[in-house]
Amino acid sequence: MSKKIQAIRGMNDLLPDQSPLWQYFEDQVRTLMRRYGYREIRTPIVEQTALFKRSIGEVTDIVEKEMYTFDDRNGDSLTLRPEGTAACVRAAMEHGLLHNQTQRLWYQGPMFRHERPQKGRYRQFHQVGIEAYGLDGPDIDAEVILLSARLWKQLGLDAHVTLELNSLGSPEARAAYRDTLVAYFERHHDLLDEDSRRRLSSNPLRILDSKNPEMAEMLADAPQLLDHLDDASREHFEALKARLDAAGIAYRINPRLVRGLDYYSRTVFEWTTTALGSQGTVCAGGRYDGLVEQLGGKPTPAVGFALGVERLILLLETLELIPAESQRGPDAYLLAMGERAEREALLLGERLRDALPGLALQVHCGGGGFKSQIKKADRSGARLALILGEDELEQGQLTIKYLREEREQETLDQATAIARLGERLD
Asked: Rounded to whole angstroms, how far apart are CA atoms 357 and 350?
């Protein structure tokens, strides 16, 4: 017997029992984006490798260790996208969406990174992201954060997440800070772990992100970027905080919250939770005014965020915030008793769907007796069983059996039964 083929490690199937919760989450996102005026963009999952090397940077863990990169038959180097921002910028530039325009875009879909799979982090994972282009004021930064805050409220997560906020300043101010930070780390070189020593020359700001407890005291005393901001960035940050204060959005200033890439500037933020252990960040964003120019376009201000869908689904499950509607089965299950009724049931099902477009109806197939069919109706999660037997067929009737409430079943003419079903849907 040949060996069974299984899914690739870290790339998981989404089974029918799980997909309703994902659909609920996606519906919440889609509705929210429309309410804020963001339009969806869909990009390919495969891009030229150069796109990510130029945007993320060659001296990063993502590019050096985690990307799924291969040569196609033409010898071109291609990569499964590890994140969505670079692809979104590429598409907006290629199709002229940034020329003398502002854009509010959002995307969703799978991303790919070859890292150690763990709960809430996989090799194929899904992100939702938003990107706003052509706006450089603190108002759009505030809107992006307010949008994410409203999503938590819709999902019932607002009491379980915390907003962390920082500013990276201008590239010039950050370059000067970088020199100060490197000098500090060099004075404490013996306290740096191997990973931090590697980053010292290539990406020193990311050392501040280290979770190594042996470095905690040294990092706490490191120079803070907020003390090195240029005047314009300081004013921008104060204006952003004022808008969040006015909107009643609580936040915590985290001076160690950084991005190690040169195209980031000014606002950076994360939403974190303590409910998932070490996997605490559920959404991360910020301003990346230098990326469009870095990828060959004209200087364009930009801000956005990305959130991990798997991690948020896990958070909803952990906190038992799964809404009942995401677990609901069909509204009704149509049973057929007898050969003639079986032939008629499929046609009746179509008439019911024509008359009631909102009706979720499952028609029994495969035969079997009444007890067998009613058990399947119950297991489907349906609230009603619709019974079509020989007697109902002769009289043009339909029996409605209530599966989730103490109520006598009713045998009605089909027109009245359709009206009764319509009342249940209202």
From this structure: 10
